[in-house]
Structure formats: C-alpha cells, structure tokens
Amino acid sequence: MTDHPLRHPTVLALACGVAVGNVYFPQALAPLVAAGLGVPPDAAAMVVTAVQFGYAAGVFLLVPLGDRLPHRPLLAGLLTLTGLGLLAAAAAPGLVPLVGASAFVGVTTVVAPLAGPLTAGLVPAERRGVTGGILLSGSLAGMLLSRTFGGALGEWLGWRAPYVLAAALSLTTAGLLARALPDTRPPSAQSYPALLAEPLRLLRTEPELRRSCLYQASVFAGFSAVWTGVALLLTGPVYDMDARAVGLLALVNAATMLCTPAAGRQVDRRGPDAVNLVGFLVAGGSAAVLALGAAGGVLGLAALVAGTLLLDVGMQSGMVANQVRLYALRAEVRSCLNTAYMTCAYLGGGLGSWLGAHALARFGWTGVCALVAVLTTPAVTRHVLVTRRTAGRFRRTAAPVPGRPGPPCPHEPPR
Predict the structure, then answer these.
(1) Would you state the pLDDT for residue 1?
(2) Which of 231, 321, 248 has the alpha carbon at shortest distance from 280?
(3) Distance of CA 55 to the CA centre of its chain
(4) pLDDT over 90 (residue 82)
(5) Average pLDDT, the chain
(6) Secondary structure string (H, E, C) spanning the chain
(7) What's the pLDDT band for 70 if we cut at 50, 70, 90?
(8) Average of pLDDT values for 83-109?
C-alpha cells in the first residue's frame, strides 16, 4: 500500500464532511418539504428517517467491501451514485418518490465509515485517536454546517435547491477522491456473502464490539431525536421561526468540532472507557437543559443552544472512544467491525428520529427531552457494570489491548 501521509487525512476529512452532510441537511428542510408538498410535518420527517435507515443499510451492505476492494474506486464510485440520487430527490414530484430517493442517498453516502478503517491502516497505533478525531471533525462539519446552509438555501430558493447543491458537492468530491487517494491493497479475498456474514459473526464473538454498538446506538438515538424535533419546535407555534433558525442553531454547534481532536487525545492518554463515561454524563445531563427550551423566548433559545452543545459534545466524544476501541480489536477486519458498529449506530439514529417526531407530536418538547434521558440509561448501566469488572483494561491506546480472542478469522491470510 502506498501512503500520502500529509494528504489523505485532510482529503478524507473533506469527503467525510460532504458525505455525512447528505444525511443531515434534510433535518432543516422538513418544515419546508411539508409546506412545499402539502403534507403534515410528521409525515415530512419521514425523509429524515428514510435517509438514516438507508445509511444503516448502506453501512451493512457496502462497508464490508472496504475489506475486499481498493478504496479509491470504491469511495469515488459511491459518491458518484450519491450525487445522482440527490438529483433524483431534487426532482421528486411527491413525498413517496422523495422518501425513496432519500433512502438511496443514505445507502450510497457511506464514505465516512469506509474512511476510518482506511486511515487506521495508514497511521501508527499511537496516532489513531488523533487521526480519528480529525476525520470525525470533518464528519461533524458536514453534519452541522449542512443544516445551516441547507436551511438558509431552502428558505431562499425552496427545498429542492439544497439537494442540487449537495449533488454538485458530492460529484466534485468524487472526482477529487479519484485523484488524491493512495492505492491500497485490500486485506481480504473473501466472497461478498462471507463479508456480509462477518459483521454478524463479530457481533456474536466480540463483547467489546457489542458494548460499543450499544453505547453509540443509545446516545445517537437521543441525538437524532433532538435534532429532528428541534426543527419542528423552532418552526412551530412556540417560536414561529423559519428554517434558517435551525441552520443557525447548527452553526452555533459547529464549535463542538473542536472537541473531537481533544477527545481523541484523551482516549490516547486515558483509554476509551474514561472518555465514554464523560460522554454519557454530558449527553444525559443535556436533557435537563434542553427541557427548558419548551418555555420559548430568550430563555428557551439559550437552553436549546446550551443543551444541543452538550449533547453534541457527549455524542462526539463517545464516538471517538468507541472507534478507537474497535480498531484495537482485529486489524484484518476493521471494515467489518466498523460495519457492525455503524449499522447499529444508525439503526439507533433512525429509530430516534422516528421516536422524536412522534414524541413531539404527542407529548411536546418535554417528551423529546425525556426520551433522551431514557435512551441514554441502558448504555450508562452497561458501562458501570462492565468497567467494574474490567477496570484498567484500556489504560493507554499507545499500547492497545486486543479484544478477547475468538475463532480464527476467515480474513486472515494463509500462513
């Protein structure tokens, strides 16, 4: 494998931002889609749910190919398909075609979970936390800024315009990846059915993988519930704002991008478990702050800003910790490990979006905040039980501790 040590982290961070942004900018557009297509707001939220469930399906079906195919044509090809799907969404005549195109976009825009295993094989073990933080910063930039520009552009030119812009960015980034990525040699020669079965086998045999999946699915479900509900809250009768307000809230949260490299450094120094615990406490505590947003006015807005900042920091820090834990397990199946992890995370996110929209409709904003606390509880409980038994297992990522040995891996090269 040839390596471009100064180029590929930045290029991949940019690609992660563009790809992940395709999943999140529809959150700011849900009210505009509802008005433009003449459907109820909770029905328009199906666009958000569809792209997240599609992303989970794409992770499961396509990310294992990162262990089988060279990364450069794979990543560039997927972003090209994403661009075409976004153009189809922009031209959708009704809600059903838009939901279908959104699901397709979710399936194909899976560059970020492919980029993590790629860089983990190109950097020293003691730099994986920092490098993972850089890539996650790119993903978070796309997650947060796409809402800002999507909401503003949609308010100005209509809900279809952000889809056209996202298509242009995806196609341009595909061309950039085709030129800038290094050549890689895939570690596996397994058939595609075997690759699909491998994440399920790893979930069965690797307890550290199951733990990371539970952690991220729980916190990410709460995160998605809040960001789906807050768009409807801000554009509803309590605040009576437009879609640009959702974008501005996301822009304020862009400051949390700075926390991911710092979280990566803490993982490298203290291990993933310590950072996970802080992430849980911050994300769970955000529910109480967010609940004050139901009051409306200046106090409510301040609570929404502070609460979403806390929730974003908790989710992002936990993601860095979970991924470092995964990449220390089995070097030859990193894409399959990431497949299981990200599939569970986005299944949680899709479920959280659906629950958030329905909780807001039935119980108001307080119900959404209570949902965040409820969703975080299982992860915190599991973490406390596990860390009591395995305290000190991950003291420093500079000397990573492998996961519990399992049966011989089918990806292992012949000796």
Answers:
(1) 41
(2) 321
(3) 9
(4) yes
(5) 84
(6) CCCCCCCHHHHHHHHHHHHHHHHHHHHHHHHHHHHHHCCCHHHHCHHHHHHHHHHHHHHHHHHHHHHCCCHHHHHHHHHHHHHHHHHHHHCCCCHHHHHHHHHHHHHHCCHHHHHHHHHHCCCCHHHHHHHHHHHHHHHHHHHHHHHHHHHHHHHHHCCHHHHHHHHHHHHHHHHHHHHHCCCCCCCCCCCHHHHHHHHHHHHHHCHHHHHHHHHHHHHHHHHHHHHHHHHHHHCCCCCCCCHHHHHHHHHHHHHHHHHHHHHHHHHHHHCHHHHHHHHHHHHHHHHHHHHHHHHCHHHHHHHHHHHHHHHHHHHHHHHHHHHHHHHCCCHHHHHHHHHHHHHHHHHHHHHHHHHHHHHHHHHCHHHHHHHHHHHHHHHHHHHHHHHHHCCCCCCCCCCCCCCCCCCCCCCCCCC
(7) confident
(8) 96
The answer to whether residues 78 and 115 touch, using CB atoms and an 8 Å cutoff, is no
Q: Give 382 or 404, the one with higher predicted confidence.
A: 382
Q: What is the mean pLDDT of residues 155-170?
A: 95
Contact 287, 373 (CB under 8 A): yes
125 pLDDT above the threshold of 80: no
Q: Residue 189 and residue 219: Cα distance in Å, rounded? A: 35
- Measured CA angle at 263 (ends 262, 268), to 5 deg: 100
Of 121, 113, 107, 106, nearest in space to 8 by CA: 121
| Range of lowest pLDDT (42-56, 119-133, 297-311) | 119-133
Amino acid 405: pLDDT: 44
The per-residue pLDDT for 311 is 94
